[in-house]
Amino acid sequence: VKHGGKLIHNVILKRHCIGDVRLISCKTTIECRILIDRGYDIVHPSWVMDCIAYKQLIFIEPSYCFSVSHKLREVAEKRVDCLGDSFENNISERKLSLLFKSRQDLSSIGEIGIDSEAQVIPLFLFSNRIVYIPRTKTGLREEKLLEMKIRLFGGEITGQQSLCNLIIIPYVDSSRRKDCIEKVNEQIKEQMKASHTVPKVARIVSPGWVDHSINENCQVPEEDFPVV
């Protein structure tokens, strides 16, 4: 509304030209599911944010398609290249860097596959996350897969626990989890000795937080994925 748009609360009443309407959602609520079943195209809120950022109405591309018709998706896919770079819309240096980085990460993993639907989720899903993953000498594949998912959706990986705002324990095996938690506790103790204060500790979650966030297309509550 602030930037010239108009909110409507009942698209089914059809008191407007449907060609001028954009349905915005990033979660499959009951209302959203009803509209999808009726054949409406649902666009991700990132489209609105990018329109504001670029100060113009930008074309719908795959990353903005939350739930759209096959016809619209075909049109959207023709507007980007194999890396997801736009032929028609402007792109920031940061988004372009993320595109290249995500593809490099995918090619380096090799045997690890990515669900085709996951590739259309906006790349900045985890853009506000700096993630620390405690490491063990074994389990390299699990760590690589977790890192790939986080980076693919805009997150950052750090090797320093003190710099992160989220800690993910990557293992299912209880002994490995225990080793990782002990490592984190030791690092916290070292921080306390160095600063003589109680440091702010990031939330510790299980890998399920990442997968559920990707599936829900939003960051789900961390407290729902404790490490036990």
Q: Work out the radius of gyration.
A: 21 Å
The biggest sheet, with number of strands, parallel, antiparallel or mixed sense and barrel status, is: 4 strands, parallel
CATH topology of the largest domain: Rossmann fold
Q: Write out the strand line-up for the largest beta sheet, numbering strands in chain order.
A: 5-4-6-7
CATH architecture name of the largest domain: 3-Layer(aba) Sandwich
As for the number of domains, it is: 2
Q: What's the pLDDT, averaged over the residues? A: 77
Shape label: elongated
Q: What's the end-to-end separation, in Å?
A: 45 Å
Unreliable stretches: 109-121
Q: Helix fraction? A: 25-40%
- CATH homologous superfamily caption of the largest domain: BRCT domain
| Helical/strand content category | alpha/beta
Q: What percentage of the residues does DSSP assign to strands (E)?
A: 5-15%
How many DSSP H or I helices?
A: 7
Strands, count = 7
Q: Overview of this structure, please?
A:
- The chain has helices at residues 30-37, 46-54, 70-77, 93-109, 140-152, 174-195, 208-216, and strands spanning 23-24, 42-43, 65-67, 130-132, 156-158, 166-168, 203-205.
- The protein is α/β, with parallel strands linked by helices.
- Helix 4 packs antiparallel against helix 5.
- Helix 6 (174-195) links the parallel strand 6 and strand 7 (203-205).
- One of its GO terms (molecular function) is DNA ligase (ATP) activity.
- It holds the Pfam family BRCT_2.
